[in-house]
């Protein structure tokens, strides 16, 4: 009678389970029935299931169709949390499922070999629990061998509780808030139990203060605090928002509404479906601006840096979606500009100072002597007594500030000369309607070596277009 009273008291406190939660059925039996195929039985822990729904069986990761549902031997079209059910599954054999498998309604669950927990060591034990003790881990219908690694101390005294990581020998399916039982390896006796905090945990060498604060928030925090913490913990990699119901232990409706509120307040940002905490985005913003400042300082003659190189300069592992999102925000603010695949600070200008400025002026003088028939790269290099690489660097810088135009690999024309050529070609075509390459060459009074590159450049710029042997004004 005392046991019944205790069970009823707990049941009243538990409240109703939402049918809109994630469907989850730990399998306790599996068998075959002629005409029905593979059948699994168990108690639905959360959510609901309907006839012809698709479920995923973990850890084998097989998607199958539910072709039959029975509750207490009666055929049903639907069953909800708390129901004891038998489900006939299509497309999977008896040998692929075992006691301890889990049937799930979405793909948002992942089997894990490590879980972070809050564990209580029973007071009736006769000796402390040492870190790395081998144990038997029981959750739902799963029983797996593993080791308990204490995160705050080397041992747990009888009756004490603490944070730990359980490292398992086979993967298990868990959810934040799940209760588990710990039994000793030998002799097999119950020595404690606890609650799942992090269902898919990274390996911890030891928990630092920040790590313990995170676990404390996940254990005792409100839903919005837990969501903020798990997203913050994901760091630069980003967090897949669809996993929130598993990692928070709260249904999709509540997590969705709570997440929307956090995003409205700017606490959490969504970049291409991945969630990032604003603190992480601010850190990345600082890295981007610092990287651009360094690049401009080291490469004053370059307009900007390629995205790939910027990513390389920002050391560490991070999501490309985070970088793209931060760059987009900086562009909206007018702090950064992106053109032709190059990223630059909006304030950056190519300025040719001191000796570089003097060399640039010499180069412009050489190009301006015969603006439509300038010396090619080789002659410029010889005339200035500089290597071709240095001359190219100067020409590239002058091109980026609009002083010269590259019309062919080794031919560069001053901007004023190119503008003059455009006006003259436009004048000729307005008067004559069309012009051949030879006619336009004669009108420009240049050799074919320069005429063809100039005319092709005007085609690319949309001033003219070629049809057959003639060119016409565009538009």
UniProtKB/TrEMBL annotation:
<dbReference type="GO" id="GO:0003746">
    <property type="term" value="F:translation elongation factor activity"/>
</dbReference>
<dbReference type="InterPro" id="IPR015190">
    <property type="entry name" value="Elong_fac_SelB-wing-hlx_typ-2"/>
</dbReference>
<dbReference type="GO" id="GO:0005525">
    <property type="term" value="F:GTP binding"/>
</dbReference>
<dbReference type="InterPro" id="IPR036388">
    <property type="entry name" value="WH-like_DNA-bd_sf"/>
</dbReference>
<feature type="domain" description="Translation elongation factor EFTu-like">
    <location>
        <begin position="37"/>
        <end position="102"/>
    </location>
</feature>
<dbReference type="InterPro" id="IPR050055">
    <property type="entry name" value="EF-Tu_GTPase"/>
</dbReference>
<dbReference type="Pfam" id="PF09107">
    <property type="entry name" value="WHD_3rd_SelB"/>
</dbReference>
<feature type="domain" description="Elongation factor SelB fourth winged-helix">
    <location>
        <begin position="427"/>
        <end position="473"/>
    </location>
</feature>
<keyword id="KW-0547">Nucleotide-binding</keyword>
<dbReference type="InterPro" id="IPR057335">
    <property type="entry name" value="Beta-barrel_SelB"/>
</dbReference>
<dbReference type="InterPro" id="IPR015191">
    <property type="entry name" value="SelB_WHD4"/>
</dbReference>
<dbReference type="InterPro" id="IPR009001">
    <property type="entry name" value="Transl_elong_EF1A/Init_IF2_C"/>
</dbReference>
<feature type="domain" description="Translation elongation factor SelB winged helix type 2">
    <location>
        <begin position="290"/>
        <end position="345"/>
    </location>
</feature>
<keyword id="KW-0342">GTP-binding</keyword>
<feature type="domain" description="Selenocysteine-specific elongation factor beta-barrel">
    <location>
        <begin position="121"/>
        <end position="203"/>
    </location>
</feature>
<dbReference type="InterPro" id="IPR009000">
    <property type="entry name" value="Transl_B-barrel_sf"/>
</dbReference>
<dbReference type="GO" id="GO:0001514">
    <property type="term" value="P:selenocysteine incorporation"/>
</dbReference>
<dbReference type="GO" id="GO:0003723">
    <property type="term" value="F:RNA binding"/>
</dbReference>
<dbReference type="Pfam" id="PF09106">
    <property type="entry name" value="WHD_2nd_SelB"/>
</dbReference>
<dbReference type="Pfam" id="PF25461">
    <property type="entry name" value="Beta-barrel_SelB"/>
</dbReference>
<protein>
    <recommendedName>
        <fullName>Translation elongation factor SelB winged helix type 3 domain-containing protein</fullName>
    </recommendedName>
</protein>
<dbReference type="Pfam" id="PF03144">
    <property type="entry name" value="GTP_EFTU_D2"/>
</dbReference>
<dbReference type="InterPro" id="IPR036390">
    <property type="entry name" value="WH_DNA-bd_sf"/>
</dbReference>
<dbReference type="GO" id="GO:0005737">
    <property type="term" value="C:cytoplasm"/>
</dbReference>
<dbReference type="InterPro" id="IPR004161">
    <property type="entry name" value="EFTu-like_2"/>
</dbReference>
């Amino acid at each position: 009678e005392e046991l019944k009273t205790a069970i009823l008291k707990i049941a009243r406190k538990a409240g109703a389970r939402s049918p809109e939660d994630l469907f989850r059925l730990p399998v306790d039996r599996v068998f075959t029935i002629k005409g029905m195929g593979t059948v699994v039985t168990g108690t639905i822990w959360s959510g609901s299931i309907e006839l012809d729904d698709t479920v995923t069986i973990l850890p084998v990761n097989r998607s199958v169709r539910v072709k039959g549902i029975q509750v207490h031997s009666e055929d049903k079209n639907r069953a909800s949390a708390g129901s004891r059910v038998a489900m006939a599954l299509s497309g999977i054999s008896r040998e692929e499922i075992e006691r301890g498998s889990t049937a799930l309604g979405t793909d948002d669950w992942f089997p894990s070999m490590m879980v972070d927990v809050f564990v209580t060591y029973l007071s009736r034990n006769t000796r402390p629990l040492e870190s790395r003790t081998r144990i038997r881990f029981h959750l739902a219908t799963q029983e797996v061998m593993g080791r308990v690694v204490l995160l705050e101390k080397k041992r747990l005294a009888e009756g004490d509780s603490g944070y730990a990581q359980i490292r398992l020998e086979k993967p298990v399916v868990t959810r934040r808030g799940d209760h588990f039982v710990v039994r000793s390896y030998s002799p097999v006796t119950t020595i404690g139990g606890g609650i799942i905090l992090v269902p898919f945990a990274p390996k911890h060498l030891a928990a630092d203060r920040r790590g313990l604060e995170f676990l404390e928030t996940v254990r005792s925090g409100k839903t919005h605090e837990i969501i903020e913490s798990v997203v913050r913990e994901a760091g630069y990699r980003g967090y897949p928002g669809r996993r929130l119901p598993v990692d928070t232990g709260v249904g999709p409706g509540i997590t969705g509404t709570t997440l929307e509120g956090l995003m409205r307040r700017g606490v959490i940002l969504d970049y291409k479906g991945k969630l990032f905490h604003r603190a992480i985005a601010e850190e990345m913003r600082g890295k981007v601006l610092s990287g651009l400042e360094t690049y401009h300082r080291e490469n004053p003659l370059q307009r900007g840096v390629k995205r790939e190189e910027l990513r390389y300069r920002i050391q560490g592992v991070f999501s490309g979606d985070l970088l793209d999102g931060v760059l987009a925000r900086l562009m909206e603010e007018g702090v950064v500009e992106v053109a032709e695949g190059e990223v630059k600070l909006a304030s950056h200008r190519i300025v040719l100072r001191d000796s570089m400025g003097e060399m640039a002026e010499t180069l412009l003088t050489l190009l301006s002597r015969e603006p439509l028939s300038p010396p090619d790269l080789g002659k410029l290099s010889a005339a200035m007594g500089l290597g071709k690489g240095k001359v190219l660097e100067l020409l590239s810088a002058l091109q980026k500030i609009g002083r010269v135009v590259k019309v062919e690999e080794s031919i560069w024309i001053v901007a004023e000369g190119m503008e003059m050529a455009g006006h003259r070609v436009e004048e000729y075509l307005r008067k004559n309607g069309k012009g051949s390459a030879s006619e336009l060459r004669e009108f420009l009074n240049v050799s074919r070596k320069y005429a063809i590159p100039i005319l092709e450049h005007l085609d690319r710029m949309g001033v003219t277009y070629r049809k057959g042997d003639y060119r016409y004004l565009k538009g």
